[in-house]
Amino acid sequence: MGKCDRVRMCAGMLLTVTALCTALLTLCAGDNAAAAFAGRGEQTAVSTEAAGPLAGLTIAVDAGHGGYDGGAFGRVSGVAEKALNLDVAKRVEALLSEQGAKVVMTRTGDYALCDEDPPIRKKLQDMQRRAKLITDSGADLVISIHMNEYAGRSESGPQVFYRENCPAGRLLAGTMQKSLIDVLSPAKERSALGGDYYILTLGLPGVLVECGFLSNAQEEALLLTEDYRQKVAQAIVQGIVDWQGLAVEKPEPLVAVDRSDEPQAI
Fold this sequence. Notes:
The protein is an alpha/beta fold. Helices cover 42% and strands 13% of the residues. It folds into two domains: 35 residues; 187 residues, Aminopeptidase (3-Layer(aba) Sandwich). The protein has a six-stranded mixed beta sheet with strand order 2-1-3-6-4-5.
């Protein structure tokens, strides 16, 4: 066999292999895959940047309580607030990610952020570590998730709190409160209120969301259902989307509280 014959044979074998691969790809994955293999498919650029109305935002989601600290307890069921907070926080995390945000969680399980036997109060160390985690992450805002309770059993309705005298927090809280009312249609429509909360004094817009009253039997029953907790999460995320889309200049948050004189964890 001459040199030319060997070249023609190799070329024929290569064409046969190519045809077989194309046929296999067509069979397994359709014409698009076959076209791509043959070099005829259009290349689609894949962006690594998140898309959505919250793209570019880093949002800290704080599930209140945890571990030794159960928070409030259901008046009928005895269910601890900490578990419901975490469930709603995880739902919020998933929905925020779908909207393009980067999410930082202060906890992802049933634990507190303090040592077993710290040199300072457990609660203080826990809050210090939550605050450090949030500030170190470069978060643009913080959402703290809680459940409410009251001595009287008639109180009900979700309520949003912001840092007292903080215009940035008040704007976010007002938008969030409206979303909770619109989505959940609570029997009692509450207004956002200012207050003194450690987690809201970090120098960035933030709100503390009391999703409902565990001391109210009807609202407790709702909060124990996955469907309602999903609706709560949707309302919270919609509130953030609405806030982000406001056609107004957002006020600057108050500066972070200086806690250098507080006892620090070793």
